[in-house]
Sequence to fold (761 residues):
Amino acid sequence: MPTTAQNLYSPTVKGFIPMIYVAWADGLLSPSEVRIIRERISAMPNLDVSEREILFNWIEPSHWPDESTFRNWMHLMKETGAEIDLNDTQSIVDLGLAMAKRSSVGDALPDLKALEDTLRDLQREFKLPPPAKFRALHAPHIELPEKPSVNEQEMQRFLDGDSYELKDRIKKILSDPLFDRTVIRDKDKYRQKVLEWLKLLAEQGYGALGYPEAYGGEGDIIRYAAVFEVLAHFDLSLAVKFGVQFGLFGGSVQHLGTKIHHDKYLRQIGDAQLLGCFAMTETGHGSNVRDLETLAIYDADTHMIDVHSPDFAAGKEYIGNAMHATIASVFAQLIVQGENQGVHAILVPLRDAQGNLLPGIRIEDNGYKMGLNGVDNGRIWFDHVKVPRENLLNRFGNITLLGRYESEIPNPSKRFFTMLGTLVAGRICVAKGALSAAKSALTIAIKYGLKRRQFGPDRGEEMLIMDYPTHQRRLFPPLARAYAANFALQDLVTRYQNRSGTDLRLIETQAAGIKAYTTWYANSTIQECREACGGKGYLWENRFADLRSDADIFATFEGDNTVLMQLVAKGLLSSFRQEFNDAGFMGAIRYLASQVSDSFLSLNPVYKRKTDVDHLLDPSFHLHAFKFRQRKLLYSLGSRMRNMFRKRITPYDVFLRTQTHMIELAEAYVELIILEQFQQKVLDLQDGPEKDIILPVYQLFALDTIEKNKAWYLEQDYLEYVKTKAIRHTIDRLCQQIRPHCDHLVNAFGLSDHLLGAEII
Fold:
């Protein structure tokens, strides 16, 4: 934010500095605070245009005051602060008035009555505690309370990483009165409320975070995903609509379009002035994007693209933002000079400025759903809708003025998958949103378990249900998975932000797998938490009904989980095939050698029966077990397929016969990369009470995953029954070890009662 030389500040403008400084002191100005300040400033009769411009600029929520502005404010306040009593209950007002008067020396003193009335009004409105805010301006040191044995804030910083401050600001915004948690069951009213929330967030600059700076953003997908993650704690409908508007629709313009589209649309999209939707899925072709039926036929004579739905099944289905959007990114088969160039995205206007449907556009409301009824899903059909050639999002494929199609990626298949690769961020955000829902459910259930008592010894006090081993067993392993998934997603989004062309395919594979793993995990965890709260969990007021119904669809959109796991397996098989075919005989020998090494170690009778606790808690054992499972499944699947190909079975039939094997391989691969990230995070954590708490959480995740797959390990003769029995006992002991700290572990998620929205806690 540009600064103004202090000698150019008018007395009235200077009088506002303490109030605005304090308003920013918590790291943000909430939507309602911005509105209140703007209203009060606008109502002041003696302010001129330049004064209002300075003050409005200072409270602009999408632009934090820069460091030089803060230093200037502090300098001006310190100059005046020595002249007044900072312990006065009205010190903010008094300091502001003193600064205004001080700057008027030598000039006629302006009428400060309007300034005083406005400042006192704001002081009452915000209920700011002045001494706590201003002592820091004068005292060189602030005494901090003695550090507790477990620092939950440090644990939260560890979980949130570099996004800690941003997430904290979003949580404060969501506690603003404008984000009212009143339950709305009427879908139209609920949708309108979610739309209002969306626009408030856009006003604060959060919608554009992923866009380049030139269009009001920061070019940072990590920060955008962090906002999505926090919104999912508050209201999943809001998170999804946020993702559709700024991530899917805006992301399609950003990543599939070129500068002409960016200049024309991105800033309006980020400000939520232009509402759009992402029209890919069709009724007849859900996950099969390559075979979408919608047509986009280019007419070289008119330079127009004719967008058409040839039949009912070609209608776009379950399109978020469909009832509010004025434009859509429509995915269709692009036909140029009679040749199908494959699926491309075209911007198609849907409504005029008054909200009326344009000619050739048909939209129907999907109506009530199992959940997410704050999202306006709809169906869209196109009846020969004509749009200009420039509406083609042409980063990967363009139509020239001469009517010819051209692309830097001549292979249609590679071009198609390159285009879909731009959507990876959506899958990461869906996984983060599902994880947020699971964290919310775990926090509610564990906090309830720490207050609810039931049964106990004869004539004795009833026990907390959290002290029952069965209760620990049902909640602590999912809690450990929440930590594991948190770190895996943190690493994945960082690598996506810093991606290069060489590792994008690997990131796509891992994003598909982690999205499936996390959304499946979230659905099962929310159900377990609901049951752990008994009848209280069944009451709507305790949030599980909404969490369960809203998160359920996360296993379907942004890719059906089973289909995504097949994609993961295919990606792994590509490496396998390259080992055997591209590298020739020696490549095969090298690959088999690694399998022999694993097989030799797994047949060691001492290793299979080793049951001491140090061994069972050893990260090297966990890593070996996870790697062995993934490698063994990959090798056996590849061998099965190779044998079928030798018998001249068609590739499609081979795929059908090995589908379940592929899913198991994909799950093993995802569990391995999650384990590796968790191990690395624990290794990076400094020794101290926080590490002492998180280490057994890691150990629980590792052993619980091995136990979940113990039938497979027993079949492969990797473990014997004595070892699986010892693993079960060790898991019980880890749950007992975690029990005294389970409140710290969920408090580290940083979720306020307002965010959780449950009465029982």
About this structure: DSSP finds 31 helices and 13 strands in the chain. The first strand starts at residue 276 and ends at 279. Residues 159-261 form a domain with the Butyryl-Coa Dehydrogenase, subunit A; domain 1 fold (CATH 1.10.540.10).
